[in-house]
Design a protein that fits this description.
Elements: H1 17-35, H2 39-42, E1 47-48, E2 51-52, E3 56-60, E4 64-70, E5 79-84, E6 87-94, E7 97-104, E8 115-119, E9 122-128
Antiparallel strand pairs: 1-2, 3-4, 4-9, 5-6, 6-7, 8-9
């Protein structure tokens, strides 16, 4: 956040509006990031040898949710994937490389529909969304 404790000396800044607008934009940006978390901020990354691993990308599509993770140097058999109703967890410890990603999401998913592929160090996972149950009209007898 940009915080300036000294008064703005810009003659075009009437009543400190530039500073006020900057503060407001910072607050709106923070509120937006809380309500709509970025997949890059939501992934829990393991830091190994002062190098941060690549983040998980996340795409919420009409009927499914897709995840992609770059995992160079990892062997397929060393990858563990756990999918539950509202989150996915991916971890791997292979050839001295550690990866640990967790991503929560709003739509409930069909855990049994999860499909993962791993090719050239890239893990792709697709999970179908469950249809939201809608209320029904009840007639009085």
């Amino acid at each position: 956040m940009r915080r300036n404790n000294r008064r703005n000396n810009d003659p075009n800044d009437i009543l400190g509006l530039n500073e006020l607008l900057d503060s407001w934009m910072d607050m709106m940006s923070l509120a937006h990031s809380i309500e709509n978390p970025s997949p890059f901020n939501s992934a829990t990354d393991v830091v190994k040898n002062n190098k941060k691993s690549n983040p998980m990308s996340y795409e919420d599509r009409d009927k499914d949710i897709a995840f992609t993770i770059d995992m160079p140097g990892v062997v397929k058999k060393d990858i563990d994937i756990e999918v539950e109703d509202h989150f996915i967890k991916v971890s791997a410890d292979s050839n001295g490389r550690n990866y640990n990603y967790t991503r929560r999401f709003k739509p409930k998913v069909d855990v049994e529909s999860a499909v993962a592929t791993f090719k050239n160090g890239v893990l792709d996972i697709v999970v179908k969304k469950l249809e939201e149950k809608k209320g029904r009209k009840v007639s009085i007898k």
